[in-house]
């Protein structure tokens, strides 16, 4: 009979407490699936007395994370504290250096220090598992690292932030404000401690950087990710998108191009009929375009205690079984540095919303500026919103009106030059709203 895997957990927040509860509740299933038991022998957190709704009797309380990481009675160190530096980083380094396996949900730490930690895991023979760091319960790390080990990858993209998808879904479906939806996401435990991290796109960028490394065998490079968040998205954009046959999603996209690997996070118009457009609420989805095979899409809960704990448990199960996959799917020494494809060279369609001066010649002027950059228009719509019509039904000539343009594929550079020229012509007021279109 193989001895149980002895697990030590640092961090007993929503996820940590759920992991303790699930190991207790799923003990028999885990033993059957791993061929040995899994036992939590030690835990630590900031407060020992806080009510967590889990029974910690019979589990040792360590004085700090380092005490667990260096405890010879612990086989697997589970880091669920978060934070890009210490105490998480030093404790993980110590655990790996002593040959222990490490399981973490810490995407910030993996995005920043993953290579260094992977090298330590390789050197000392432990596992470094981080499935929970990307897309909650969706096993996308394992899919890229192991399931598709024999397949070339051309593109990986998806909805990687539950909070943003939840906000955009509720704004669209219930006509609620951005602030109301964010508050609910925080209340439900989806959002990061600092919500700007979610809504400004950085959380997605960290996850995307990890996926890009797994997909393309490159060194994780968060600084190579172009990032835009969802804070500028207005209800008017969501309405216009629906009318034009699109839906707005915050996507992370990593794609191989002629100029290098493009990694970008931004609000994106996706065709209303596409499978990614159907993904609503806190749900995440990742699509992988593999060479020679149809795209693979994985959909599932991307945030919250239960979703994250599910992935943590799968990683612990791998350690118990003795599975030791290389953290980034190949030796750290074989990961390459690949050219970052500049965003100005990005090619795609664009949604553009302008507040235009409602006078003869305005549309012609805008169309001319686009034509000068060889940008072809798929559609152009001008509206007189309520309140812009006077008592006799005529439009008030002085008020600017929203004009919405959809372009065919063009370069980012050409689109920016055209909009710069339109702004210089003074035929619009304010800044244009630009949302990239991703065709599937
Ligand atoms: N704040 C993150 C999200 C949690 O909303 O997806 C999971 O990383």
Task: Describe the structure in your own words.
35% of the residues lie in helices and 24% in strands. The protein has helices spanning 14-25, 27-34, 65-69, 88-97, 107-124, 140-147, 162-174, 178-187, 195-199, 202-216, 235-243, 305-321, 362-372, 412-424; strands at residues 5-10, 38-44, 60-61, 76-79, 101-104, 128-129, 153-159, 226-227, 246-257, 260-271, 283-290, 296-301, 347-356, 377-382, 401-407, 410-411, 428-437. A hairpin with a 5-residue loop joins strand 11 and strand 12 (296-301). The chain is elongated and about 85 Å long. The structure holds L-homoserine. L-homoserine binds next to helix 7.
Secondary structure: elements and pairs:
Elements lengths: L4 E6 L3 H12 L1 H8 L3 E7 L15 E2 L3 H5 L6 E4 L8 H10 L3 E4 L2 H18 L3 E2 L10 H8 L5 E7 L2 H13 L3 H10 L7 H5 L2 H15 L9 E2 L7 H9 L2 E12 L2 E12 L11 E8 L5 E6 L3 H17 L25 E10 L5 H11 L4 E6 L18 E7 L2 E2 H13 L3 E10 L3
Parallel strand pairs: 1-2, 1-4, 2-3, 4-5, 5-6, 8-10, 10-17
Antiparallel strand pairs: 7-9, 7-11, 9-10, 11-12, 13-15, 13-16, 13-17, 14-15
The structure holds L-homoserine.
């Amino acid at each position: 009979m193989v001895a149980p895997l002895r697990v030590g957990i640092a961090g007993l927040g929503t996820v940590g407490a759920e992991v303790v509860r699930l190991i207790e509740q799923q003990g028999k299933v885990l033993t059957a699936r791993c061929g040995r038991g899994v036992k939590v022998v030690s835990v630590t957190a900031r407060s020992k007395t806080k009510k967590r709704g889990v029974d910690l009797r019979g589990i040792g309380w360590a004085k700090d994370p380092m005490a667990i990481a260096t405890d010879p009675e612990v086989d697997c160190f589970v880091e669920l504290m978060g934070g890009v530096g210490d105490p998480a980083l030093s404790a993980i380094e110590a655990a790996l250096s002593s040959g222990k396996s490490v399981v973490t949900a810490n995407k910030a730490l993996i995005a920043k220090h993953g290579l260094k930690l992977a090298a330590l895991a390789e050197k000392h023979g432990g596992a470094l598992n981080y499935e929970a760091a990307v897309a909650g319960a969706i096993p996308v790390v394992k899919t890229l690292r192991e399931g598709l080990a024999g397949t070339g990858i051309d593109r990986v993209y998806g909805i990687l932030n539950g909070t943003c998808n939840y906000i955009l879904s509720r704004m669209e479906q219930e006509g609620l404000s951005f602030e109301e939806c964010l508050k609910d996401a925080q209340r439900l435990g989806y959002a990061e401690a600092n919500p700007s991290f979610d809504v400004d796109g950085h959380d997605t960028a960290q996850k995307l950087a990890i996926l890009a490394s797994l997909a393309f065998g490159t060194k994780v490079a968060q600084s190579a990710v172009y990032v835009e968040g969802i804070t500028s998205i207005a209800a008017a954009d969501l309405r216009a998108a629906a009318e034009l046959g699109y839906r707005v999603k915050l996507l992370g996209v990593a794609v191989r191009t002629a100029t290098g690997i493009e990694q970008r996070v931004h609000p994106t118009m996706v065709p209303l009929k596409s499978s990614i457009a159907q993904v609503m609420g806190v749900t995440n989805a990742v699509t992988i375009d593999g060479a020679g095979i149809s795209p693979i899409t994985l959909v599932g809960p991307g945030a919250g205690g239960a979703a994250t704990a599910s992935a943590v448990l799968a990683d612990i199960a791998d350690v118990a079984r003795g599975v030791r996959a290389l953290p980034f799917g190949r030796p750290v020494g074989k990961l390459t540095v690949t050219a970052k494809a500049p965003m100005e060279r990005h090619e795609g369609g664009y949604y553009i919303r302008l507040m235009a001066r409602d006078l003869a010649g305005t549309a012609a002027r805008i169309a001319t500026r686009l034509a000068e950059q060889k940008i072809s228009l798929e559609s152009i719509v001008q509206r007189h919103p309520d309140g812009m019509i006077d008592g006799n039904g005529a439009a008030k000539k002085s008020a600017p009106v929203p004009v919405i343009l959809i372009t065919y594929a063009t370069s980012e550079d050409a689109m920016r030059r055209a909009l710069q020229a339109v702004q210089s012509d003074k035929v619009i007021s304010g800044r244009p709203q630009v949302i990239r279109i991703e065709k599937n």
